[in-house]
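Continuing from the previous page...

OK, I double-checked the sequence for Phytocyanin domain-containing protein against my notes and this is the correct one:
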Amino acid sequence: MAGLLRLPAAAAAVAVLVAVALPAARAGSPAADDAPEYRNHTVGGADGWFFDAKANASSGNYSGWANGETFYLGDYLIFKTNANSSVVHTTNATTYDLCDPTDDLGPATYIYGGGGGGGGGLEQNNTIPVPLVQEGANYFFSDADDGAQCQKGMRFEIKVEHGRGLPPSLKNPPPAPKERVLAPPPAGTAFSGTGGVEPGDGAGDNGGAGRSGAGRAAAAGGRLLGAAVAVALAALVAA
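Thanks. Re-ran it with the corrected sequence; updated structure tokens here:
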């Protein structure tokens, strides 16, 4: 047949060896059992996640930092920052390119932190932990100062690999906040910046816990108020 590519015997033998070796190579790639342990990555290292308005620049080279790290599902990004800057996490490349989550109503764009802008650097520092729960491209930026911080370098992109997959505590986490709230450190999780993550109760809450916890508290308060009103009415009827 004219269209058939005929390989020399030696080349054919090499092709067979490659075909056999590829599945073995894939089997030897990081699987659930031998993938790296879950880690915390302190964003920007010692530079943190800050913006200096006087210098009109971010405190670190975040794209350069990200290029030197490897990220897996279940890892956490630790943003050491203050109320001048926000943390926007999205898988929407358009939102990232625009430095603006305002019109992004999708479920995969979350806003953590203050984002008040100003860049004075005197505000109380915050620690914002963000879990990596989506495999593939993930984008991070600060939309403070109407996106100016993002445009001046407070942005980076990472590729999240599968690794061990999500730990049980992150398989069904509460939704992260859309409004600007500070994400409290998840209970049972150590944030050392280099050490391993120890998922525990609430390890996947990351800010959603604050909102859902407040909702539960409000609901409980409402039930208590309703019970109090019922008791009062019963007392009036009895009188």
